[in-house]
Amino acid sequence: MPGPGQSGLVCELGDDGSPAGDPVEVSDLVAAVREHEEEGVGTRWVWPSAAGIYPRLLRADVRVARCHDVALAEALIAGRDAALGAGALGAGAGRAGAGSVRGGGIGVGLGRGGVGGGGALDAGQAGCDRLDRARDDRLERALELLRVWSAAAAGEAGAVAFTAAGGGQADQQALFDRALAGAPDHPKPRDTLNALIDVHADQLRRIAADEHPGRFGLLVAAESAGALVAAEMTMAGVPWRADAHDALLTEMLGPRPAMPGQRPARIAELAAQVAAAFASSGAGGGPGHRGGRRPVNPDSPAQVLQAFAADGIRLSSTRLAVLRDVDHPAVEPLLEYKELARLHSAFGWVWLDAWVRDGRFRPEYVVGGVVSGRWASRGGGALQIPRLLRRAVVADPGWVLVVADAAQLEPRVLAALAGDRAFAAAAQAGDLYAEVATAFAGDRRKAKIAMLSAMYGGAGGEAGQLLAVLRQRFPAAAGYVEAAARAGEEGRVVRSVLGRACPPPSANWRALTEEAADPDAERDPQAGRASRARGRFTRNFVVQASAADWAQVMLVSLRAGLSKINGRNEGVQVLSGSAAVAPGARRQRPDLVFFQHDEVIVHCPREQADAVVAAVSRAAEEASRLVFGPTRVAFPLNTAVVDCYADAK
DNA sequence: GGTCGGGGCGCG
DNA sequence: AAAGCGCGCCCCGACC
Predict the structure, then answer these.
(1) Do residues A628 and A98 lie in contact, with contact meaning Cβ atoms separated by under 8 Å?
(2) Which residue is nearest to nucleotide C5 (CA to C1')?
(3) What pLDDT score does A110 carry?
């Protein structure tokens, strides 16, 4: 695999993905990529996986504008094909096509894509209905080769989880076995390139064969660009003040314990209080409980339940919500213990040592890691950082954080998806819930509960009543999620607005529900539960996954917008062709540093803040237009320019 | 000694 | 207030 100074093969591709010439061997692939980018001809790089190779390019200070990520594309396309087999219900069926993807690519391949030329993905090429088995096998082998390549390319980290495109544990194990049995760690460049070209061309055909090729192509393009953003964000890192984090911990927990594994003072104190509360109440209890009860470990739900039971309090669980209503002296210290112990174990000093270096927190993002298309993260709990710790996220001197989150994104997405006139009118407003509240005698709280219940499938308590009101007032919106729920209950598959498919039900689920559908069979209550659970999943999927579509398109649009903001360079300039950045040199450009489902953070020099805010706003508008086409629904952002993340709203 | 599922809780 | 959806990560305890 290429690294700085390592050779590689490059081949230009046409719009249909076929080679536009012979492969060219370059002595330094990274340098070759840099040169192509500097020519500014709109190259779209085609590679097995951005996660595998792009970090290396970034370490050599090479950025690319566009790519086609074969691994991510394969996951999307294979998911779509599995959905077709299960009977898909298109989320946006019947709507006009939205985005388009243009240009050919260059394979590491690379391609000098015709910017503005044709839409290879929109062209109505013949579908892939005639796929004979031999070809399938060849493409399977090619894909496998690319996975091996990607894993090898990931480099120092060693074995990387293969992005299983439709593969489960078994596939991965088989692949691993073959690798051990002598499959080359570094496949021959020529073989890799051929595999890449074949698979890519096949993917273009399969995208074009989609019911909505424009939208599906946009999804693949956005996912690929998302992988670029993810690698760049890991490289940039979230500015993190270890001293502020440490001060916060010390204030809440007491000083850092000298010995690792030791409880901080405040946590030890609370544990003792919990133990004492149970011991004292037990002392006066029935016979056989003369005081000396074993101290309760507050970290053990089983022990806590037992301790409460010994005092005559039977609990369904030790969850916060349950404990809050319990009248017992142990409750107060226990709740505080839980809060602080979690802070200590999940984001305490150990976390700080492991994850913050040189004033940056650098988590790894997993693009497409969630079935809905949301990103996941690996290590560091990047997407679960307690709001409390936002205090430690502070811009560098002279820099600011531009924090933007989409307001009430999911209900707005539903409004746009469903084409509900009344609901869309409500979604023109800045506060959607306040508008919906007119259906609930102005009670905003009820409006919110009704909306969330509609999107999540809640039906308990007052939710049922509120839902009835919602259904009457916004029939199309309610009908939309209910159709999705019905599809799920019947074992069908749903898709997001851009065509991301939810997974089909498991064999287990099918067996369970089919059995129950047999009129002669005993009614199994498990089957009903499983069916309703899948209904809630698909109901939520159409909304959450379409929101993820919007957010990722917004993110990559923002990336493009930010790249046009040119600041001065500070310090020594990067020499042309050199991988080295002089010490102290610092690019004065805005960095995307965080993305959490519906929220982005840009770290930039203070003088660029206005331009960044404008770019954010344009990105949201562009995402709305590309994903939903013409719609009356507004997608407003809350944007703040701050020194510290905690100060953003 | 290690692995793995469940409980619990942080985020959206 | 939580519920209903999606995650990652910690701890515990059962198990190998």
Answers:
(1) yes
(2) A456
(3) 35
